[in-house]
């Protein structure tokens, strides 16, 4: 088992770090306040190869893996969670095209993402169907050669800025099995009947776009079905087994960024006649934070490495995502504590990181859902 990155992976990591430090740091607070990321920045990152690196070369991507995607996400979140999240969300759902899309669909949609000429989203969550995705009632009715989509999705990434949206919708309501009632359909957001309201005032990652989405008799071609009709739930779960992997990189990056802020602060801040770094309690805190991050990083890299070798282990992926989210929350809490009152003010970067951390235990499967995934695979269907 190898615990070292290859030279190419180290180069990607370094390049992502330099890009984030050079482009994110000075505008991070402004993006948080305006609740948006300049499209030009996404375009620039795409041109440098930081968008959708797991997309095959045949469709314009780098043809790399989920470990490389995780490395980039980690470095971006290390500098700013909001901008980092927006970069990750550009291709959120692209795995569905890679796994289940037709050749025509891959060429039509994937190639535009990696160049930064398009942004996508994946409309899954509904007002009464969050973790229970199978309870979603947004409908897709096939009439002649068109799907007619109706319903409401909430808290959808890129809801107001996406050029096209994957929609998890009910196409076979009468199917005996709940897991065979849904399909995934592509909807271009300029279609009549598509509307989205931007959600403002989120607790954290405000720079990334989130919206409530409404479908009113939105018509798309029959060929916009991704994969197999009625197989949407299975396809969705297979997507999560991949997306949760690099979301664990979000948690590692946020925690690393918070640790670095804490180290800088305690090495300069004086209390009781000495630097905070001189107190043993501070040294213990820093040691514990760093150890938690290293453990989370190792598990995240393992999960990604397994995926890239063709091993899809939902249990390990769930462990990586759950642990990274918890690590981010715990580390940034200690980082703010070490900043004292200064960390509580909104002109402090650690305050922004603190607000952002909690989402990592909620989206892409709550920590409770991850525990269900892990528990069931250990205990079986008893």
Could you describe the 3D structure shown?
By secondary structure, the chain is an alpha+beta fold. Helix content is 49%, strand content 15%. It has twelve helices and ten strands. It has helices at 7-23, 28-34, 39-47, 66-79, 81-89, 94-100, 103-114, 232-266, 280-308, 314-339, 349-357, 367-379; strands at residues 120-123, 139-143, 146-157, 164-170, 182-188, 194-198, 210-221, 225-226, 270-271, 274-275. The protein has a four-stranded mixed sheet with strand order 1-4-5-8. Strand 2 (139-143) and strand 3 (146-157) form a beta hairpin. It is globular.
Question: Which descriptors would you attach to this protein?
Answer:
four-stranded antiparallel β-sheet, alpha+beta, 382 residues, 10 strands, four-stranded mixed β-sheet
Order of helices and strands: HHHHHHHEEEEEEEEHEEHHHH
DSSP summary, beta strand count: 10
The share of residues in extended strands comes to 15-25%
What's the number of helices? 12
The portion of residues assigned to helices is: 40-55%
The chain-level structural class is alpha+beta
Q: Give the overall silhouette.
A: globular
Low-confidence stretches: none
| End-to-end Cα distance | 33 Å
* Average predicted local confidence, pLDDT: 97
Strand order in the largest sheet:
1-4-5-8
- The value of Rg in angstroms is 21 Å
For the sheet with most strands, the description reads: 4 strands, mixed
- What would you call the quaternary organization? single chain
